[in-house]
Amino acid sequence: MSSVQLTTRVLIVTREENQPVMMALEQAGFKVEKVDNITKAENILKSLRPDLILLYSDMTGDHGQHFCTFIKSVEINPRPIIVFLVHENNPDERIEVLRAGADDVISYPISGKEIAFRIMAHIRRRQETHVNLLTGLPDGVIANNLIEHCIAEVDNWAVLSIDLDNLRVYNETYGESRGDQMIKALAAVLKSVLTPDDFLAHRDSDDFILVARTENPEAVAEEICRRFDFIGPRFYTQEDASRGYVIGVGPKGIRRRVPLVSISIGVTAKGRRKFSSAVEVLQVARDMRYLAKSKIGSDWVSDRLRLAANETVKKDNRIKILVVEPDASMSLLLKDTLEMEGYFVEVSHSAHEAWTLTNKWQPELILLETDMPYGEFDGWELTSKVKQNPQLARIWIIMTTKNSDHTRALECGADLYLPKPYELQVLFSEIRYLLRTRIKSSILL
To answer: Fewer CB within 10 Å, N- or C-terminus of the chain?
Structure first.
């Protein structure tokens, strides 16, 4: 059973046996492949994807110029390191080989042990160029190569695609340096769940890839969420942490309640689909991660269907919006225009009626005017009742009112405050912003 971890591959091109050199490289932990001519080397280059090519210069004829040009034309990232072995009696050839494009030239005769250490130095330098500077983890190039290796040679593997939610607003509120500390904290959490045979990469910004050797990657994802949620609130002021959100300020006076930073994880594994490339694996994992963003707080979604007792299948795929508006003409305008946008819309003219309909219909979003002239309670109280009910708390609430007390609006539970008067295009844009994460996580892509 092959390991998830990548082994450095060295391709030797020589007509000689060179057993001492091959033995020294294998003892150093390298996977060695040998061919006896350049044509064979060119034919297997793309499938083998060696990290380094060790070539005896007396085989090239043109001091390696053609071979170096060929290697640099092949789409392999990172490109193999090119090292030539030149006999010590041919010092001028060293210059010609370097001019042809070689990365290094080694004079022989030389001990296999010294060659092994020289190759280690080259591999170490290349690895240092593919490291994320913030976390010191391998970058996306290395992650892609490792996943390709898993597809071809590893029997059991899973890929977790992980990123932070609401980091942009956190950076705007607390500063990017604090955001970098949050990313480092996520990296520390991910390292804490690794086994010796797992692999972790930092692709970009807050985007991480974990390749795990496990039968139950979903359990790993659940543990990551638990550990991050334990440390996440420590990155906020006591006031923000206790109320569970920060206030995002948008254009035209829009105020939005933005939840604390959480994580979303997408999970896939070998055997669940026919994967032919790392690109396909990462696309599925990212699709699952996108679905995880429909959850409140840190969560994961796997392409292995997860059923829960409180999850039901939605028969009507249209997104449901409840418009709570006492003004009849305004409510009719909103209903007609929202239905033209493809939503399923119901209208209520009082908070009491809206509360009954919300419990029965359970819309994805409520567009709410707070000031109600009639009824037992108003829109402010309706918002609080909805958000305090565990069965309804997931419903987005956009509060529209002439009342300029946006702080009260957000504190009572509104997800977005939109002062009147507003343009319909601004409203539609904000609705799309909220609802595009309301895809049901039980749907398999």
So the answer is: N
Tell me how crowded residue 363 is: count the other CB atoms within 10 A of its CB. Answer: 21
In the DSSP assignment, the letter for residue 261 is P
- Percent helix, strand, coil in the chain, to 5, is 45, 20, 35
User: Where in the chain is CATH 3.30.70.270?
Assistant: 140-302
CA dihedral 43, 47, 48, 53 (to 10 degrees): 50
As a dihedral over the C-alpha atoms of residue 202, residue 205, residue 208, residue 209, rounded to 10 degrees, the angle is -70
248 Cβ neighbours under 8 A, 6+ residues apart: 169, 172, 173, 255, 256, 257, 258
Q: What is the pTM of this model?
A: 0.66
* Spatial contact of 265 and 221, defined as CB atoms under 8 Å apart: yes
Q: For 355-397, how does the pLDDT look when each residue is reduced to its tens digit (9 = 90+)? A: 999 999 999 999 999 887 666 688 889 999 999 999 999 899 9
Domain at 140-302: CATH code: 3.30.70.270
- 121-152 per-position pLDDT tens digit: 998 888 888 899 999 999 999 999 899 989 98
320-435 is a CATH 3.40.47.40 domain = no
Distance between CA atoms of 173 and 287, rounded to whole angstroms?
Answer: 29
Pairing type for strands 207-212 and 245-249 reads: unpaired
User: Alpha-carbon distance 410 to 398, whole Å?
Assistant: 10
* C-alpha span between 304 and 289 (Å, rounded): 13
Residue 100 parent element (H or E)? helix 91-100
Q: Can you say whether the dihedral through the CA atoms of 146, 151, 157, 160 is positive or negative?
A: positive
Under CATH, domain 9-129 is a member of which superfamily? Response regulator (3.40.50.2300)
Question: Which residues pair with residue 300 across a beta bridge?
Answer: 265
Cβ 246 vs Cβ 258: under 8 Å = yes
